[in-house]
Amino acid sequence: MLYDRVMVRISPEDGERRSSGGIVIPATAQMAKRLAWGDVFGVGTSVRHVKVGDRVLFNPEDQLEVEVQGTTYLVMKERDLHAVASELTEHGTGLYL
Question: What is the residue range of the signal peptide feature (predicted)?
């Protein structure tokens, strides 16, 4: 990866989901625009806040898609990431920007 680019693989989602009230939402249900979680598989030399292996939150719409050895990845600028998951929960929500 070059410059400020990040290569992310979208985490596989479960088919069905449950709402907070316990209602089952089928995988085929149309949802509003949603942010997605993914795992970082490559970073450019100018990327400062994420590293390979981090779990990031981003908008999968309007991202560039690339297939490498049969696996699909998204390529985006670092500024397109919304949050990075942290395993340390002592700092609040476990997310940092």
Answer: none
Percent of the chain scoring above 70 in pLDDT? 72
For the record, the structure tokens of 31 come out as 């949802």
Q: Is the pLDDT of residue 83 over 70?
A: yes
Alpha helices in 1-97 (DSSP H): none
- Other beta carbons within 10 Å of 68: 11
Question: What is the rounded CA–CA span in Å between residue 42 and residue 94?
Answer: 22
Query: How many CB atoms are closer than 10 A to CB 5?
Result: 18
Q: What is the pLDDT of residues 13-31, one digit of tens each?
A: 645 667 777 777 766 665 6
Residue 50's contacts (CB-CB under 8 Å, 6 or more residues apart) are 6, 40, 43, 56, 78, 81, 84
Q: Which residue type is seen at 61?
A: E
